[in-house]
Amino acid sequence: MEQNKLQNLLLQVRAVSERYSKINELTGENFNVFRILKLESSEVRMHSAFIAELLNPKGSHGQGDLFLKLFINMFCFKGHSFQADKSIVEVEKHLGFVTDDEKEGGRVDIVISDNQHHKIIIENKVYAKDGKYQLLRYHNFYVDADIIYLSLDGVEPNEISRQHLRSGIHYKCVSYRNDIIQWLEACRKEVPTLAVIREGITHYINLVKYLTNQTSNKEMKNELIEVLSSNLKESFLIADHLDSTCERIAKSFGEKFIKECLARGFKCEWHLNFNNRYSSVWVWKDEWKYLCIGFGLQSYDKDMRYGFIIDPDKTVLPDELRKQITGLPHNHSNPSDQWWPWASAMEQPLNDWSKYPAWEAILDGTMQESMFRKIDELIDLTKDFDI
Question: Which residue has the higher pLDDT, 262 or 331?
Fold first, then answer.
C-alpha cells in the first residue's frame, strides 16, 4: 500500500511537471536569448552591462533618463537631488591601483555620476565573493555616494568587505529576486509599444527569475503544493531519501570521472561529501609541483566552483606563481583565501547541485564534459607557468 501511494504521488507530480513544460514550450518561456548564449553567470558581460545600458540616459534604448529615474526613486537612500538627465554611467570603473593597506583603489562594477558630483555606486554580486575591504574602498572613494550592494537574494555583504559600514546608512542591500525584478517590470510598463526594448527586458526578467529559482508559472507551483499537501507523509518520505539518492548518483559519477581522468593522463582524488561543510575533487599531473585543479562544493548550498587549489601536500605557493595565478582573468577567489588562488563559479545551471538541472547534467554527461572543458581552459591559461 505504501509503495502504491509513493508511486501515485510521483505520477501526479510528473503529470503536473509535463503539463507545464508543454505550456512553457507553447508560450516560448523556455526560449531565452541570454541563456542560449550562456551569459547567465557573467557578471560583467551580462548583468552589469545590461543594467548599465538601461540606466544610461544616452543608452541605445533611446528613452533618456526614464529608467534611471525609476531606479533612483526605488533604491537611492541618501536624499540627493540627482540630476538624472546629466548623468554618466561607467561599467568596471577603475578607481586606481589597490593601495598597500587595501583600503583604496579597485574596480567598481557600475558608477553613475551627475554634473553635481553626486554618485551612485552599484556593487554587483551574482556569484563573485566579497573581497577584503571591497565595500569600504568604494565608500572611501566617495563617502557620500549611494552604494547599492546588489545580490541575487539581497544578502548583507561580508564583514571582511564592509568593515564598520552600516546598512541603510553607508550602503543599501538590493536583491535581484524581488527588487530588480520590480524595477525591470516598471521599466517594461513604460515601453509597451516598443517591442524590441519591451521583449529585451522580458528576456532579462525571465533570466533573473531563472537564476533566483522562481517558478515562472504560479499555477504550477500552486498545483504542486496541493498535490504534496494531499500526500504529505509520502512527500516527507521522498524528501528524507533524496540526499541519499543524490549521494549514490554522485558516487557513480565520481567513479566514471576518475576513470576518464586516468584515460586522459590525469591523477584524480574524489572527495565530494555532502556531509562535510567543504569538499572537493582534485585533478593533477605528476609534473605539477604546486597546484591541482579543483572542483569544490559547500554543503549548505551545494554551490560548485572550480579553479586552482594548492596541492594539499604543499603549504607554500611561491610568491611569483601566486601573483601569476591570481592575476589570471575572471578570478573570483576571495583574496583572503590562501588555498584557492584562482576560482570561479561553474556556469548555470551546473553550479547549483541543490537543483535538478545539475543532476540531469550529471546523468546525461553534460557535467563531465563541462568539467573537462574547464580543466583544458585552465591548463591552456597556464601553459607557460611552472605550476
Answer: 262
